[in-house]
UniProtKB/TrEMBL annotation:
This is Electron transfer flavoprotein subunit alpha. It holds the Pfam family ETF. InterPro entries: DHS-like_NAD/FAD-binding_dom (IPR029035), ETF_a/b_N (IPR014730), ETF_a/FixB (IPR001308), ETF_alpha_N (IPR033947), ETF_asu_C (IPR014731), ETF_asu_C_CS (IPR018206), Rossmann-like_a/b/a_fold (IPR014729). Belongs to the ETF alpha-subunit/FixB family. It comes from Gemmatirosa kalamazoonensis. Residues 4-192 form the Electron transfer flavoprotein alpha/beta-subunit N-terminal domain. Gene3D superfamilies: HUPs (3.40.50.620), TPP-binding domain (3.40.50.1220). Keywords: Electron transport, FAD, Flavoprotein, Transport. Its cofactor is FAD. One of its GO terms (molecular function) is electron transfer activity.
Length: 325
């Protein structure tokens, strides 16, 4: 019976939703491969181990805590060494990461260090005949590929929002793990961190995203999108590249092939045509609502609900309805 490793992301000592999703995916893999243990690693400044209970609640049997003052910020070199060492010595069948900006750096580094295969950006994980089976979008999301990995350990990164954390309480025994090497000696150091839009819901973690396109005509009309997002209460604002290229919204809000990849519960596309490069970033959303005045706009092909109409009429009415609900 083989165990499965998960790297659970934290930020500022707080567990990120991505971390819970990675541990949930690891739990699914452990159960599918014979019911082994899930060992979840968290790394950060002293005190980060305080998140252990939350990881136990979604299926971690053991929480590996790496605490070091210099790990208050993400440090790729130290984490690569520490994770790789643990995955190697732990004899894990699989190791799960998050396909976040951090995970997209960490997972390939660990894979290269171990000479192990990596299936990136998974939307589901399972096992069949001893192999780890991963589904992931390919060709900007036009097809869903199924990868079967016989090699061990199989490294997998899971797309944000694709795996829903489920209660599955385990012991969550805490084990302290030493960082491998001195983080203070890392060749690359983070010297400054500029916070993005503070207090707003993070695009990657938001259950609802209201996203605007060129159909809004001008930067100031994004007030409509912001108002609808506010009405939901837990929504983030996204945008197309046409919009970020115009400078109407910051690049950090761009969704798509060259922007963020998101999988919220609800994605509301406002005045967006549905170009393939935009769909690459949002087509795995659970429910898609599109508002466009052109009934032939490609976005309607993937929308669950479509409203053919002018955004300047439809969005204020929708905002009012959501507020009243
Ligand atoms: P448009 O395509 O101009 O669509 C505007 C839509 O608004 C139209 O469908 C129109 O009918 C509708 N509309 C207009 N007025 C109204 C109104 N009053 N009421 C209702 N509807 C209205 N794009 C991304 O989004 N993300 C990416 O990451 C990305 N990466 C790219 C990478 C490459 C290499 C390339 C070549 C392109 C990339 N693009 C990306 C650009 C992409 O091809 C499209 O140009 C872009 O997504 C279009 O944005 P849009 O839908 O806002 O604008």
């Amino acid at each position: 019976m083989a165990n499965v490793f998960a790297f659970a992301e934290t930020r500022g000592g707080e567990l990120r939703k991505a971390g819970l999703e990675a541990v949930t995916a690891a739990r699914q893999l452990a159960d599918a491969t014979g019911g082994g243990e899930v060992h979840a690693m968290v790394a950060g400044a002293p005190g980060v181990g305080g998140v252990a209970q939350k990881l136990a609640e979604v299926g971690a049997d053991v929480v590996l805590v790496v605490e070091h003052p210099a790990l208050a910020r993400y440090d790729a070199e130290t984490l690569t060494r520490t994770v790789a060492e643990r995955v190697k010595s732990g004899g894990y069948r699989a190791a799960v990461f998050s396909a976040t900006a951090q995970g997209k750096e960490l997972a390939p580094r660990v894979a290269a260090r171990l000479g192990a295969p990596l299936a990136a950006d998974a939307t589901s994980v399972s096992a069949e005949g001893g192999a780890i089976v991963v589904k992931h979008p390919m060709y900007t999301g036009k097809v869903i590929g199924t990868l079967s990995i016989a090699a061990s350990p199989a490294l997998v990164s899971v797309r944000l929002g694709a795996i829903t954390p489920a209660p599955n309480a385990k012991a969550g025994r805490v084990e302290a793990v030493q960082a491998v090497g001195d983080p203070a000696q890392s060749k690359a150091r983070v010297v400054e961190l500029r916070e993005g839009s503070k207090g707003k819901v993070d695009l990657g973690e938001a259950p609802v995203i209201v996203s605007g396109g060129r159909g809004l005509k001008a930067a100031e009309n994004f007030k409509l999108v912001e108002d609808l997002a506010d009405a939901f209460g837990n929504a983030a604002v996204g945008a197309t590249r046409a919009v970020t290229d115009e400078g109407w919204r910051p690049h950090s809000e761009q969704i798509g092939q060259t922007g963020r990849v998101v999988s919220p519960q609800l994605y509301v596309a406002v005045g967006i045509s549905g170009a393939i490069q935009h769909l690459a970033g949002m087509r795995t959303a659970k429910t898609i609502v599109a508002i466009n005045k052109d009934k032939d706009a490609p976005i309607f092909k993937i929308a669950d609900y479509g409203i053919v109409g002018d955004v300047f009429d439809v969005v204020p009415a929708l905002t009012q309805a959501v507020r009243a609900a």
